[in-house]
Write a structure and sequence with these properties.
The complex is a heterotrimer of chains A (288), B (403) and C (299).
Chain A (H helix, E strand, L loop, with lengths): L1 H32 L6 H18 L4 H24 L7 H23 L14 E3 L2 E3 L1 H23 L1 H11 L1 H6 L4 H26 L6 H16 L4 H17 L9 H15 L11
Antiparallel strand pairs in A: 1-2
Chain B lengths: L2 H19 L15 E7 L9 H17 L8 E7 L4 H14 L4 E3 L4 H13 L3 E4 L4 H5 L6 E3 L4 H14 L4 E7 L4 H12 L5 E7 L7 H10 L3 E4 L3 H14 L4 E5 L5 H7 L1 H4 L3 E6 L6 H10 L6 H20 L4 H12 L5 E3 L2 H9 L4 E3 L7 E2 L5 E2 L3 E7 L2 E5 L2
Parallel strand pairs in B: 1-2, 1-3, 3-4, 4-5, 6-7, 6-8, 8-9, 9-10, 11-12
Antiparallel strand pairs in B: 10-15, 13-14, 15-16
Chain C lengths: L1 H27 L7 H18 L4 H23 L4 H21 L1 H4 L5 E2 L6 H4 L3 H25 L1 H11 L1 H6 L4 H27 L1 E2 L6 H14 L4 H19 L1 H4 L5 H22 L16
Antiparallel strand pairs in C: 1-2
Helix pairs in contact in C: 1-7, 1-10, 1-11, 1-12, 2-3, 2-4, 2-10, 3-10, 7-8, 8-10, 11-12, 11-14
The chains are: A mainly alpha (288), B alpha/beta (403), C mainly alpha (299).
């Protein structure tokens, strides 16, 4: 039992790190643009497929193709926001959320139109798990963990050290003050979307590397991604990291009690619990 | 009226009738029925059944083309329609509704997945449309289908018994069964248990959600139980995922699966390494040495045929020959006459539609013997008599073995 | 062909009732419910399982579906009533997914992914081939009754309070009304309608399976409501028929555009749904038939 629990915790840590990446994307967009962008799911798929094309058609190894996932998803994000969501900027957060659902459907169905619904695999070798005593972990899981960690570290450095990063944090913190200081809100919005969706794209590809991809790769994860962001506190990037790990661990450890098929219900339960007990999330500071 | 003109008219009529009847191979008895006879294939072009659907459609079309070229059925052309059920019950029901309500087909051929079969069968019997299927779930035969259902695939209890036989033959002490949820999952588990538990074999089982893209946790659980044999009882899509997870977990026991899940498409998806050594069980052997099999190979220009394509060929032939026998192009006619042409051992042996039609027109009794097997049906629609074979994946190829 | 049109109209009526249910929850009480499909599924399963397993009469199935879904909706409201809009959206979406997961996995109860088939269709044996038309009339009559009732509710004091809550819950609370109580009642009413729609579908198609109850269906109803006019009952009905007509008519494109596969056509259809929703949000955020202002303001 102890061995099983430890193994599940290890799986959860690996999964949580991967989950944190798109959760950061969601929360970052929320922080700057003030609405929940449901199309994160579709952008995860965009990233997964962009990486897939680079990997299978051009033969690029996964860790290079993932840059393509980032750029591809980020670009589509900026484009879809510009075309579809920007005109609605003045509307309520709910209208924007619904509009983002519409965008999600449009992007996902476009992917399905061109690629079909059947699962596809990256051109990576199938490798056996590494064993350490009674624990085992897949090489791909470890790689995913590393890639996710590097991506998050780079983001933190960007936000903490660069002028642009600091400007974005300013906008998230106090948009009116930032505007009066001459920070261009539109530019910051584009940056937030580009980065946020780019991270979602990385997340999608990471999930796909360990399993397979299809247009619904993002949709299947979305409840867990929401849970991670909400549990950590919508708008808080460190919160999304903590939330991601928390949800990853919860989902895996839940296997001690529930059958595997109920995993996504765990995310939902977490959301309900957090919103009831501490609506601002674990690390969120602002109003709920 | 003068004598001469009467004789002339009668002669003219007789000559005319003779002129019409002579080139025809089929008797023309369709009173007041005009327009093409509609047959439909509800095949899986996408989804888990997609390795087989396209070939099934090809087989249907080939038979229909063959019959139309020789003059049609009951003096009418046969129109063949195909719809994709997407290996999905809901999509299958919608497609069947369209075929039945809008296109008014008389028979639906070769439904493959049991979930689709279960959902579509009530529609068929209510509308007196004949369903000739592959779906193997035992429950299907027990529904009150009033005879509007036959299937050429041995039902799953028979298949499960094959698994039990394989387990005992390999002296396994413990087995772990995993299947996705289907109408036959519980009955397969039960039948295997009944077959091996009395002999002291430990059986554990689990049902998986076949839409998941990773079964790492389920496979982990299985490996912890350390069984001698693992049953990878899914369709192609989930088998691919399971096989990879098995490889990663370095599982050392034997792996066995349903024949329809261990096919070339599976090997392609899982990769040679992950697929190596996996056993394919309960494959209803096509009647390789039958003349029907040979004729089908020539008709569709392929060297190797899977059992489903053979069954699809047989479905088309059976539907057409039953309609001819009943001199009526309806689903009810197929229901009433199919056993007359399939179970009748005393009849002249026939292995394709054209020969059968000719003999029926001459008033002879026939026995259709198909490419998938002898094609004899019990009253509830189950196939009687079937031969199974066992195979194993060796170096990327499926090789028949004696096990 | 006529059978096909009858089927389309029947779906239109069922979706219209579902849209009316959403209208009560969102249009009248201001609580967005992205999980309406979960209520729809719940009602369908309650009626289906009662009539198939317990051989209950169909009327009882319908009654239980409405009552059961109403109770469930009331309970859900207690949990979510104080959430603001975007959280509400996430939670209700999650709720519907959980309903679907439970339906898929509790095989002993719901028969899981095999679905429940052979659901009794009212008077099927007596009516024979006239069943489809009779059922359509049945649905239309129910729709008319529901519509009439809801119009009464909208104009009643209860309806006015709900609208007040939608605009600004604080003011209403300040005026001494128990906001939570009203929200629970509104959700229960909307839930009962969604459950009714679910039962209507189940006894029409005689087969239900968890796969049907996907978020996309919620989006269809959302589209119907936003196109028809949020808050407006007639608009909801009109929107539902327009959406069904649109969805079904694209099926015939298969013949017209032969180089697209069925899967691609389904993808195209979904794309157009998304696009339509977006366009409705741009051009008519109040929908095709905007909400009628109370007479006092139109002088």
């Amino acid at each position: 039992m102890f061995e099983k629990t430890l193994q599940l915790a290890l799986n959860g840590l690996m999964a949580g790190a991967v989950l944190a990446v798109p959760a950061i994307g969601l929360t970052m967009i929320y922080a700057v643009l003030r609405f929940v962008n449901f199309s994160v799911a579709a952008h995860m798929a965009v990233g997964a497929f962009a990486g897939y094309l680079l990997n299978t058609s051009l033969g690029l190894p996964a860790w290079i193709a993932i840059l393509g996932a980032f750029v591809g998803a980020g670009a589509v994000g900026i484009g879809s926001d510009h075309l579809a969501l920007r005109p609605l900027r003045s509307q309520s957060a709910l209208t924007l959320a619904i509009a983002s659902i519409a965008v999600n459907i449009m992007i996902e169905s476009t992917i399905r139109f061109f690629f079909g619904g059947s699962p596809r695999d990256y051109a990576i070798p199938l490798r056996r798990d590494w064993h350490f005593g009674f624990l085992h972990v897949g090489p791909q899981q470890v790689e995913n963990f590393l890639i996710a960690s590097v991506a998050m570290a780079l983001l933190f450095l960007f936000l903490a050290l660069t002028m642009t990063g600091k400007a974005m944090r300013a906008v998230a913190d106090n948009p009116m003050l930032a505007d009066s200081k001459g920070i261009d809100p539109d530019r910051m919005a584009r940056l937030a979307i580009g980065l946020g969706m780019g991270l979602a794209g990385i997340g999608g590809m990471l999930v796909g590397l360990d399993t397979s991809i299809d247009p619904l790769v993002g949709f299947r994860a979305i409840l867990s991604v929401f849970a991670a962001a909400v549990v950590g506190g919508l708008g808080s990037i460190p919160g999304a990291v903590v939330g991601g790990i928390a949800i990853g661990l919860s989902e895996e450890l839940s296997l001690l009690l529930l059958p595997a098929t109920y995993k996504s219900a765990v995310g939902f339960l977490a959301i309900v619990i957090i919103l009831t007990l501490r609506p601002q999330g674990l690390l969120g500071a602002r109003m709920a | 009226m003068s004598q001469r003109s009467l004789i002339t008219r009668r002669t003219a009529l007789l000559t005319g009738a003779g002129a019409i009847a002579a080139p025809l191979v089929i008797s023309t008895a369709g009173f007041g029925q005009t327009g093409p006879i509609k047959l439909a294939g509800l095949v899986s072009l996408t989804g888990s059944g997609s390795p087989f659907g396209p070939n099934n459609r090809i087989a249907h079309q080939a038979v229909v083309d063959q019959v139309n070229a020789a003059g049609g059925l009951l003096g009418r052309k046969i129109e063949y329609l195909a719809e994709d059920d997407q290996t999905n019950a809901e999509a299958g029901v919608r497609a069947a509704r369209k075929l039945i309500d809008v296109d008014k087909v008389q028979a639906i051929l070769s439904v493959w997945a049991s979930a689709v079969g279960s959902a579509v069968l009530p529609l068929c019997w209510e509308n007196k449309v004949m369903l000739l299927g592959i779906s193997a779930a035992d429950t299907l035969a027990e529904l009150p289908h009033q005879g509007y259902f036959v299937r050429t695939q041995p039902h799953t209890v028979l298949q499960a018994k094959e698994f039990a036989r394989f387990i005992l033959a390999n002296n396994a002490k413990s087995v772990y069964l995993i299947m996705p949820q289907t109408p036959f999952t519980e009955s397969v588990f039960k039948t295997i248990r009944e077959g091996v538990e009395p002999k002291g074999v430990k059986v554990a089982s689990a049902i998986i959600d076949n839409k998941k893209t990773s079964f790492r946790s389920e496979i982990d659980e299985m490996v912890r139980a350390n069984p001698d044999i693992f049953m990878m009882g899914g369709y192609v899509a989930e088998n691919i995922v399971m096989a990879k997870d098995l490889f990663r977990a370095n599982f050392k026991g034997k792996v066995m699966g349903f024949a329809y899940g261990v096919v070339p498409a599976f090997i392609d998806g899982a990769g040679k390494e992950a697929a190596e050594g996996i056993y394919s069980i309960a494959d209803p052997s096509p009647a390789f040495d039958s003349s029907a099999y040979t004729k089908l190979k020539a008709l569709v220009k392929k060297d190797q045929l899977d059992t489903f394509m053979c069954q699809a060929y047989d479905h088309a032939n059976l539907a057409i020959l039953s309609m001819a026998k009943g001199k009526d192009a309806t689903g009810t006619s197929i229901r009433d006459n199919i056993r007359k042409i399939a179970n009748n051992d005393a009849g002249v042996k026939v292995d394709n539609a054209l020969d059968g039609l000719k003999l029926i027109a001459e008033g002879k009794e026939i026995k259709y013997s198909g490419a998938s097997g002898p094609c004899k049906f019990a009253d509830n629609g189950n196939i009687i008599e079937v031969a199974f074979r066992t195979a194993q994946v060796k170096d990327g190829k499926i090789v028949q073995i004696k096990a | 062909m006529i059978n096909y049109l009858i089927a389309m109209a029947t779906f239109g009526a069922i979706y219209a009732i579902l849209a009316l249910g959403l209208n009560v929850m969102w249009g009248m009480a201001g609580m967005v419910n992205l999980g309406i499909v979960g209520f729809y599924a719940f009602g369908a399963y309650v009626s289906a399982l009662l009539t198939v397993n317990a051989h209950a009469p169909i009327a009882l199935g319908f009654a239980a579906a409405m009552a059961g879904t109403a109770v469930m909706a009331a309970l859900v409201t207690l949990g979510i009533a104080r959430l603001r809009d975007d959280y509400l959206a996430i939670v209700t979406l999650g709720f519907a997914e959980v309903v679907r997961i439970v339906a898929e996995n509790e095989i002993w109860l719901t028969r899981g992914t095999d679905g429940v088939s052979g659901i009794p269709q009212p008077l099927k044996s007596t009516l024979g081939s006239d069943f489809n038309l009779a059922y359509l009339l049945f649905c239309l009559i129910i729709l008319a009754i529901v519509l009439f009732m809801l119009e009464r509710v909208r104009k009643s004091p209860f309806g006015r309070v709900l609208r007040g809550i939608r605009e600004d819950a604080h003011v209403v609370a300040f005026a001494g009304k128990d906001v939570l109580r009203f929200k629970v009642k509104a959700f229960a009413l909307g839930g009962a309608l969604a459950g009714l729609a679910g039962a209507l579908y189940a006894h029409y198609s005689s087969y239900i399976v968890p796969e049907i109850y996907v978020p996309l269906l919620t989006i269809y109803i959302f589209l119907a409501l936003t196109a028809g006019g949020i808050g407006n009952n007639w608009g909801a009905v009109l929107g539902a028929f327009v959406v069904v007509f649109f969805l079904e008519s694209t099926r015939f494109l298969v013949g017209v555009i032969p180089w697209l596969s069925a899967e691609q056509l389904a993808a195209l259809r979904e794309f157009l749904i998304g696009l339509s929703l977006l366009l409705v949000l741009y051009f008519r955020p109040r929908g095709l038939i905007p909400e009628p202002l109370p007479r006092l303001l139109i002088r």
